Amino acid sequence: MTLITVIRQLQEKNAIPVQRMCVTCRYFDPFAHSQSDKPHHCHFVHAPFGQRELRVDCREHELADPTSRAATWDAFEAG
Ligand code: SF4
Fold this sequence. Notes:
The chain is α+β, with helices and mostly antiparallel strands.
């Protein structure tokens, strides 16, 4: 289980305050470029980025609605 998974689970259970993570952001598009070494896409900056560049405290973060968050997480997990 990754740190991001743990933080997200705690956040979804309201056990910790909302974190400004890519995986809960309305701009996050996981594995939009799945054949690339920068598989994810940020629609805020309109650029791809890699797994190691996933943010956990991004100033530009905007919380996605719950349905979108769930769908994004499923896509992220499916990789
Ligand atoms: S705006 Fe920040 S938190 Fe949202 S996808 Fe882009 S880099 Fe991630």
